[in-house]
Amino acid sequence: MPKSKRNKTVTLSKTKKKGREHKEAIVNAIKETAEKFSSVFVFSFENMRNKKFKEFREQLKSTSRFFLGSNKVMQVALGHSAADEIRPGLHKVSKLLRGDAGMVFTNLPKEEVERLFNQFEEYDYARTGSTATEKVELKEGPLEQFTHEMEPLLRKQGMPVRLNKGVVELVSDFVVCEEGKPLSPEASRILRLLGIQMATFKLHLICRWGPDDFELYMQGPDDSDVETN
To answer: Is the keyword RNA-binding assigned to this protein (predicted)?
Structure first.
């Protein structure tokens, strides 16, 4: 008997891929924004946390506009060379949009932007695959920070634990993670349970462009072709 088409499962989570129209909208938005603001900064980021970044962006909403996404799309908008740049000197900014980077157009004074970016630092729990910043080792004995209900969960993470008169106890020393090595999913969960935060969300300024000047803050091995004046 043929299968009824009425019973066909429909996935509602499918989303439409961002196509040409979306990219063109971003390019046009960047071009319009470049005409409205006095300067633009390129920045890099590490250990991105979307919620924290949104809060930082909201803080500057009245004076600035951020763009974070496809570097290639942003490069097209700014121009790849002096021949197709949208304002004089912006092709230098385009060349520095690489890796985990974004840009912010702003009317704030240069010193204020530098202060805000240099002061921004948020600590959070490290994710699976992140590099451990220190060695964490738990010694044999009672783990009084955990309730007895958590014993099965800890055991599931590979910890050699048991219940001793209602108290969670390590039956031997246990290394959660080693400094400089990637965190396993289990190590990441244990660190969260222990309240140990190893990830630091930071923003680093790379360059600044203004109508009359260009300044490089961080120079990498591939930036030798970027003119600074």
So the answer is: no
